[in-house]
Specification:
Distance between the termini: 27 Å
Helix content: 55-70%
Order of helices and strands: HHH
Radius of gyration: 18 Å
Number of strands: 0
Amino acid sequence: MLKEQIFEKMNGFLTEGLLLLPEQYTIEDEFAEGKECCILYEGIYQAERNLCERLGEDENEDVETILNSMEKITRILAMKMYEYGKYACMVRAIGR
């Protein structure tokens, strides 16, 4: 599905050339070096490392659960926003 491809591209999971959109549309990798999401993610990673160090562990299951759940929540919200945006465009196109 297009919305999944857009999400994957924005999150840096989709390689170049796999997303078929007209040339005037550019979907940026929001996790590219220097982008705000990249910087925020680096902060999250460092906080996780700090927590694990304080706990004397290499990794912590609770921290992993939090991170994985937040990623799933983000995906759910992004997919819903895509659908709402698509619906809003359709309504606008038919003049409601």
